[in-house]
Amino acid sequence: MKNSEILELSTEELVARISEERANLTKLKFAHAVSAIENPSRITKVRKDIARLTTEITKRKSASASE
């Protein structure tokens, strides 16, 4: 997910997307623990997407607090 896509989402959509991505990450980790998944770099990509989404929420909270 690109930053430009993240900026277009509302705060509620960001929160929903984070929960979806965390569930996806858990599924990937379990699948990888049971048997090697085809592309293990997907785990890293999902982790970075979660971090990007969380960072955007933090930015929005600090921006609203400073106003």
From TrEMBL:
GO terms for cellular component: ribonucleoprotein complex; ribosome. GO terms for molecular function: structural constituent of ribosome. Coiled coil: none annotated. GO terms for biological process: translation. Keywords: Ribonucleoprotein, Ribosomal protein. InterPro entries: Ribosomal_uL29, Ribosomal_uL29_sf. CDD domains: Ribosomal_L29_HIP (cd00427). Belongs to the universal ribosomal protein uL29 family. This is Large ribosomal subunit protein uL29.
